[in-house]
Design goal:
This protein is an all-alpha fold. Helices cover about 65% and strands about 0% of the residues.
């Protein structure tokens, strides 16, 4: 290691330390990028000096170069920060530097060596991970990182397909006491499976099954054991494993999948009759499951008769619309006395396939030919939807109204009127919309849509410039449905409208009522903005001044909070409230198992244990406080925030602001500030907007995965990540990179900054694009008169996106109050 490299690392670590200190003091600091490694240029040939002569002047004595000794503690702090942020290259460089300066007898040496191997594994350098961690267990047999090092070493062997060494290493792990033997034995079984040794795999899987109590893992193990038995042609034993799954499986989709697999096993065993029986079971019992479609394919290929209606259903749910229609038609032809359901589903198949006129024809055949069928009402609605999709507005409205007028007592009559009104409003046919919403309220005042119909009536009047009529509609809503969810919105819009009309005093009164009703709601915060700006359509609030982040440790604030907590918590079972976990929690199996899993990097499995622990003590305020700090210190920010939120709910504080500031900041913290603030400065984005967005998206959980597949802190969908990497550009992008916080934040901020630029700084529209897609955001913005941000949110036709923007706005205001003076 040359002096230049050492000096660069020293500078880097001191810069990082300075950034941490300044951030704790409330300063916004961006650490400039600094190369951790530089190639040493090849030395130029040095000409040979002439030999000294009697007249030569002696060369001056060279000045010795002073190289300061770096502080390993500072280097390790930087390394941990890089690892926390997912910057494994920088972390590796720092851990290498720390190991170079640490004495091997230093207690920090084993951790540094383990972390170096861990970072090498996480970066995909498995050979380096093995070289680093081999022999760790012999060198440090009593160290707390012994088992984590063995686990990472075993996973490195797995990644290189060295299954024999993986098994040996996993077995070495089991020598010491462990609470996760089920996880280790399952991995040993998987390794034996890769080695095509099903007998040994079965032994390992059975050990795992004996050690686990998780229904999910039990089902997974039964599946793996069934596969191992099949590899040995032990068909009855394989079927027994699937039967064990069916005894506890609840989800239709999973049950269908297991039944289909059982059919395949029977076929392999040569028992076609039993196979067909299982395939029929899947088709008849679970038509919506894709496994039912696979079972249908097997039956059709074997020319086994299948009920044509059921066949059509399975095809329809599998999106095989052409075969579905053919099956329904065969059913209709062969069953003259059919109930009409086949017409309905044939219509749905045509509708999904884009054949709208054929869909309408099938719905009419049901409506006219089978008027007593229970699906007739839904057929009317689908018929109207087909017309609307064809852009035949008049016919769609006529169909909705015809059904509601013909069958006023039908359970779907009010729904038809509601959909007609929404269609009219979306088409900006405000007169039609107002009349139709009014019809709904007059005919069905107790319908679940009635209050919302009045609210949207007011919006339609507002958009037509009929402000007095808008006020009347909203007042009627408040008087007629005082407990409705949208009463607060109606009050807000009344204040906004009065402000627009110039009735300042009346507007202030109305807006103050909103604030007093729910002081920390979205509409309350918007009402404050209207009052403070005296504008009927203020934009996104600006960030005032500098950010003031609290120090990591604030004993005085924490002590005040604990005193407040003690004032209302029942302490009959405890002497006093402290931050430390009591033994009853510390020794809880959920906690101990979670800690071991987390130490191995099995974050998802650990989170499952910790969530169970959190829920176990959900009615104990002191425990929620202690767990909030415990999870925070582990870097598990989402459960920490959930504990703080639960504590607020249990507390006597009526509002967030009424609680001690320490608890407020525990519920609304700022994590990953170095990344968020650094990218905010780089892209020119409000840093608190990014903090609010990260909290809304993931609760600062860098391992979060949504139902739609969005990943990480900023919840980026992998395909969007690929597009961002292409546009930035970012070389060598891999979807798993989104689990690395520094890259996830970089991508998310770049994407939001692009949206802000595209929408000329309109934060509401940019957030709509971030959540609902830029195309939808453009559509919603174009439909908004005068680009009013409040109106923009109300006309968003995706409830998720509207709620998303409101929540980020609400959280932004809270963050601004807590951290921006």
């Amino acid at each position: 290691m040359n002096n230049t490299t050492i000096l660069r690392r020293i500078c880097h670590t001191f810069l990082l330390a300075g950034m941490i200190i300044l951030t704790a003091c409330g300063e916004r600091v961006v650490l400039p990028p600094l190369p951790l490694k530089t190639a040493t240029p090849a030395a130029s040939p040095t000409p040979t000096a002439p030999p000294p002569t009697a007249t030569s002047t002696p060369s001056p004595t060279p000045t010795p170069t002073f190289t300061p000794t770096p502080d390993p503690s500072v280097i390790l702090a930087a390394a941990r920060q890089h690892l926390h942020n997912g910057d494994y290259t920088a972390a590796i460089a720092d851990y290498e530097s720390a190991l170079a300066w640490l004495d091997p007898t230093d207690e920090r040496y084993p951790e540094s060596r383990f972390r170096l191997g861990q970072c090498a594994f996480l970066s995909g350098d498995y050979h380096r991970a093995i070289a680093t961690l081999q022999g760790f267990d012999q060198d440090y047999p009593q160290d707390k990182y012994r088992q984590p090092a063995l686990f990472v070493l075993a996973r490195s062997y797995e990644s290189l397909d060295d299954w024999e060494q993986a098994i040996v290493t996993y077995r070495a792990y089991l020598i010491s006491p462990t609470l996760i033997a089920d996880q280790i034995y399952e991995r040993i079984g998987d390794a034996y499976t890769k080695l095509q040794d099903p007998a040994a795999a079965l032994v390992a899987y059975q050990e795992a099954l004996n050690a686990t109590s998780s229904p999910v893992q039990m089902s997974r193990l039964h599946e793996k054991m069934a596969t191992a038995y099949l590899d040995q042609h032990a068909y009855d034993e394989a079927l027994a494993q699937y039967e064990a799954i069916l005894e506890q499986a609840q989800a239709d989709t999973y049950r269908a999948q297991v039944i289909y697999q059982m059919g395949l096993v029977h076929r392999q065993a040569g028992d076609n009759e039993a196979a067909h029986s299982r395939f029929r079971q899947a088709v008849e019992s679970y038509p919506k499951a894709y496994a039912a479609y696979l079972s249908l394919v097997e039956l059709v290929q074997d020319e086994v008769p299948v009920d044509e209606f059921q066949r059509g259903l399975v095809d329809y749910y599998a999106r095989a619309y052409g075969p579905a229609v053919e099956a329904f038609y065969r059913y209709i032809e062969s069953n003259p006395q059919h109930t009409g359901d086949a017409h309905y589903f044939a219509g749905l198949a045509f509708l999904a396939a884009g054949s709208y006129e054929l869909a309408i024809h099938e719905f009419d055949r049901l409506i006219e030919g089978h008027p007593a069928n229970e699906r007739v009402g839904q057929a009317w609605l689908e018929k109207a939807r087909a017309y609307a999709t064809m852009d035949d507005y008049a016919q769609a409205m006529y169909t909705y109204r015809q059904f509601a007028d013909t069958y006023p007592q039908h359970t779907l009559a009010a729904e038809a009127i509601w959909r007609a009104a929404l269609l009219a409003e979306a088409r900006r046919e405000y007169g039609d919309a107002i009349a139709t919403y009014s019809t709904l309220v007059d005919r069905y005042p107790d319908n679940t849509h009635a209050a919302e119909a009045l609210f949207r009536t007011g919006l339609c009047h507002y958009r037509r410039g009929e402000l007095d009529r808008a006020l009347t509609a909203w007042q009627w809503l408040i008087d007629k449905y005082p407990a409705a969810d949208n009463v607060l919105a109606a009050r807000f819009w009344m204040g906004k409208t009065l402000l627009r009309q110039g009735f300042i005093t009346s507007a202030q009164t109305a807006l103050q009522e909103v604030i007093q009703a729910q002081p920390e709601s979205y509409y309350s915060f918007r009402a404050r903005d209207l009052l403070s700006t005296n504008s009927a359509a203020p934009g996104w609030p600006a960030l005032p001044g500098n950010l003031l982040l609290p120090p990591d440790q604030d004993p005085e604030s924490q002590a005040e909070f604990e005193e407040w907590l003690a004032s209302w918590v029942d302490q009959s079972a405890e002497v006093r409230i402290t931050a430390a976990l009591p033994d009853t929690v510390r020794n809880d199996p959920y906690l101990q198992r979670g800690e071991e899993l987390l130490a191995l990097g099995l974050r998802t499995e650990a989170m499952s244990e910790f969530d169970a622990l959190r829920k176990k003590f959900e009615d104990a305020p002191a425990r929620q406080y202690q767990l909030a700090l415990y999870f925070r210190d582990l870097g598990l920010y989402a459960p920490s925030i959930r504990c703080a939120q639960r504590l607020l709910k249990l507390s006597p504080a009526d509002t967030l602001e009424a609680a001690p500031r320490f608890l407020q900041q525990l519920a609304y913290p700022v994590y990953f500030s170095d990344l968020l603030f650094g990218e905010a400065a780089a892209q020119g984005v409000d840093p608190l907007l990014l903090v609010a967005l990260a909290r809304q998206e993931s609760l600062f959980d860098d391992g979060a995965v949504s139902w739609a597949g969005a990943i990480g802190l900023m919840q980026i969908i992998p395909t969007t990540g690929e597009w961002i990497a292409l546009k930035m550009p970012w070389p060598d992008y891999q979807p798993n990179d989104l689990y690395r916080p520094y890259l996830n934040v970089k991508f998310g901020v770049w994407y939001l900054a692009r949206a802000l630029n595209d929408f000329e700084g309109n934060v509401f529209a940019a957030l709509a694009g971030y959540n609902g897609g830029p195309g939808n955001a453009v559509r919603w913005l174009e439909a908004t008169e005068e680009k009013d941000p409040d109106l923009f949110i109300e006309i968003i036709d995706r409830r998720e996106s509207a709620t998303y923007i409101k929540e980020i706005y609400r959280q932004y205001i809270i963050y601004r109050r807590l951290y921006a003076g």
